[in-house]
Design a protein that fits this description.
The protein has about 130 residues and is mostly helical. Helices cover about 70% and strands about 0% of the residues. The protein has a domain at about 50-120: AhpD-like (Up-down Bundle), CATH 1.20.1290.
């Protein structure tokens, strides 16, 4: 089967809106444990001894092996925003395949769709400011 039935750019915007809406909903519930985890997760990708791009690559490969498509999409968008080349992304996906095995192949297919959608969106939004 060829391209997805829904245009990939629309998928990215829908992903972004759903993620934003649900994060706001979760954070507004008042549960301190959830709030603390969200804060910890955000801080884990701030530059320190490793730069932000390296941390996002680590997040991408880990998410691939754990088979979390939402996480993969998030990290791919962030990596494109941070200037990752397709070649860099492909190398990271290869590491994911080696570590995670053939079970990651469906997620690699979706990752390629996401990369293509990001590149298409960059034609009108070069820094992907409309996302995340």
């Amino acid at each position: 089967m060829g391209a997805a039935m829904v245009p990939p750019m629309k998928d990215l915007h829908e992903f972004n809106e759903h993620r934003k809406r649900m994060n706001e909903r979760i954070l507004s519930c008042g549960h301190q444990g959830l709030k603390r985890f969200w804060a910890l997760d955000s801080r884990a990708y701030e530059a320190g001894a490793l730069d932000e791009k390296t941390l996002e690559f680590m997040g991408l490969t880990t998410s691939m092996v754990l088979k979390c498509d939402d996480c993969v999409t998030y990290h791919l968008v962030r990596l494109v925003q941070l200037g990752a080349s397709d070649e860099e992304l492909y190398e990271a996906l290869n590491v994911s395949l080696i570590v995670g095995g053939s079970i990651t192949i469906p997620h690699i297919r979706r990752a390629f769709e996401t990369i293509d959608a990001c590149r298409e969106l960059q034609k009108t939004d070069p820094e992907l400011k409309s996302l995340l």
